[in-house]
Write a structure and sequence with these properties.
By secondary structure, this protein is of the alpha/beta class. The chain has 14 helices and ten strands.
């Protein structure tokens, strides 16, 4: 059920009751007075609207009593509908529903986006990073308060069970870049992983594991990467205690909000114009950037490659440097040739 269906139920219910009263009034006049359908309908509408037209035909005593009850019931329903519509507009519900409908239409158009399942502390942290990276994503959570919080932050959000096929389809899982499952318990994470893998067999699935026992089940369910927040948190605390400056530097490079220096993986397509150039040529063109590793088509990774190595049979580069130069390199990979 859509948000708009729930919110519009009261006004719709009022109109349905009004229509029912009109039907009852029309049938009543037809049976009591023996009038035609059109005369009975006209009498019913004029009676309910209290516009003051004269009677279509003289009413019998039974007809007058019927009219009294018709007026009391019909006018009451009309006042109910009017009051409800005024409340609906004054309280901003109409604007809220239009906003939610716009959000649904925006979600329908998403492509190459991320899906975040769960908007607790972990999910909120993930959304903050993705938002800072200016990538598109949609949040799924079945708790109303979490959805409202996500929307207050300006995020696209859907209220529902992330393990439900229809919810994931509405989140455009078939065209998503990856799904991040960070629900509160391992059972929900496993079911959601199974559903996501069934709907999109090639989709990268990053899943939160709350226990060591869950990792094996998540792998069997089809998870691409499994993350245990408690374990990672403990490892980071240990690194900060042993090598605080190095840890802070790495964190600032990977997750730093100022983005002075970043590490990125840049895809190199089969038809990329970088093919055949050496690492030295590329780094010479982008002097503040360094290529840290190469990933080949067979899945092997060459770390700290020689400057004379040619960019051949490569699917991606792991590079380090200013974000502007990394973006420029990404454009070179897509369409340009380096000048010698």
């Amino acid at each position: 059920m859509k948000f708009s269906d729930v919110a519009l139920s009261r006004p719709v219910r009022g109109f349905v009751v009004l229509l029912l009263i009109i039907v009852i009034g029309t049938i009543g006049y037809t049976l009591i007075e023996g009038w035609s359908f059109l005369d009975s309908l006209f009498m019913t509408v004029t009676t309910l609207s209290t516009v003051g037209y004269s009677e279509v035909h003289p009413l019998s005593s039974a007809g007058r009593i019927f009219s009294i009850f018709l007026i009391l019931g019909g006018v009451g329903v009309l006042f109910y509908i009017l009051a409800d519509m005024v409340r609906y507009v004054l309280e901003g519900e109409l604007g809220v529903q239009f906003g939610r409908r716009r959000m649904e239409l925006t979600i329908q158009k998403l492509k190459n986006h991320f899906i975040i399942c769960g908007y607790g502390r972990v999910g909120e942290s993930i959304a903050t990073i993705l938002n800072h990276e200016q990538v598109e994503f949609v949040v799924i959570d079945k708790r109303d308060e979490n959805i409202e919080m996500a929307r207050k932050h300006g995020y696209l959000a859907m209220n529902g069970d992330a393990a439900n096929d229809e919810i994931l389809r509405k989140a455009q899982i078939h065209s998503a870049r990856a799904i991040i499952i960070a629900l509160g318990n391992d059972v929900d994470n496993t079911y959601t992983t199974l559903t996501a893998r069934e709907l999109n067999p090639m989709l990268p699935i990053i899943v939160r594991a709350n226990s060591e026992e869950a990792k094996k089940k998540l792998r069997l369910a089809g998870a691409s990467h499994i993350v245990a927040p408690e374990t990672i948190g403990g490892q980071r605390m240990a690194r900060l205690a042993l090598k605080p400056k190095a840890t802070e530097f790495v964190d600032s490079v990977i997750f730093g909000m100022k983005q002075q220096l970043v590490i990125e993986e840049i895809d190199v397509g089969d038809n990329s114009n970088l093919s055949g150039y050496s690492i030295h040529q590329v780094e010479e063109h982008f002097p503040d950037m360094r290529i840290l590793a190469l990933k080949k088509h067979d899945g092997s990774i060459i770390s700290n490659p020689n400057g004379k190595a040619l960019l051949h049979d490569i699917i991606s580069l792991l590079v380090f440097g200013p974000q502007e130069q990394l973006l420029a390199l990404e454009q070179w990979c897509a369409s340009c040739k380096l000048t010698s």
